Amino acid sequence: MIAEREKKFGCIEVVCGSMFSGKTEELIRRLRRAQFANQKIATFKPVIDVRYSEEEVVSHDSHSICSKPIQNPAEMLDIDPDVKVVGVDEVQFFDNSVVDVCQTLANRGVRVIVAGLDQDYLGKPFGPMPALMAVAEDVQKVHAICVKCGCLANHSHRLNRSKDLVVLGEKDVYEPLCRDCFNESLKENK
């Protein structure tokens, strides 16, 4: 008789949206639930994200969870074999190799939860996010509220004129805008 294969529960979950939409808050919530279920977790973030803490993932509402800052997504492959859930914040700042790393972890039976901006400050798809959304079993898009009209905000409008793709900041640098207000702001800044 052929032995029955052990079922692996690996998957990829993506939480995406604009600045101030609650992406990190949702990531932390999911990781805390896994901890409550006695599942061992590992949390990662890019080394460049030092806005609130060098060693923790921190939401705008000051909720936090311990994390390991990494330069290269391949570092996530060195997790303890007992880890059942991996969380990654600000995933848009990694290169496209993060997609293969997430796939490898999920294929090992790990639940991988990533959070990040799906669009850059120009409203274009951001880094590896489109590929991650394509291979994920679950994608949740969260929204902020437009600071100009109160509609659902889908865009992170940059308040300064920097042309750099990555500019770390908070409410002093970005504001959430809906499609119409974002398009209007783009016209004004031309």
Going across the major beta sheet, what is the strand order? 5-2-6-7-1-8
Strand count: 12
- Average pLDDT rating: 89
Nearest-angstrom radius of gyration? 17 Å
| Biggest pleated sheet | 6 strands, parallel
Principal-axis shape equals elongated
Features:
single chain; 190 residues; alpha/beta; six-stranded parallel beta sheet; two-stranded antiparallel sheet; 4 helices; 12 strands; 22% helix
Describe it.
With 190 residues, the chain is an alpha/beta fold. The protein contains four helices and twelve strands.
Task: Provide the fold topology.
Blueprint: E1 11-17, H1 23-36, E2 40-46, E3 56-58, E4 64-66, E5 68-70, E6 83-88, H2 97-107, E7 111-117, H3 129-135, E8 138-142, E9 144-145, E10 152-153, E11 155-158, E12 174-177, H4 179-188
Parallel strand pairs: 1-7, 1-8, 2-5, 2-6, 6-7
Antiparallel strand pairs: 3-4, 9-10, 11-12
Short description, anyone?
This protein is of the alpha/beta class and 190 residues long. The chain is built from four helices and twelve strands.
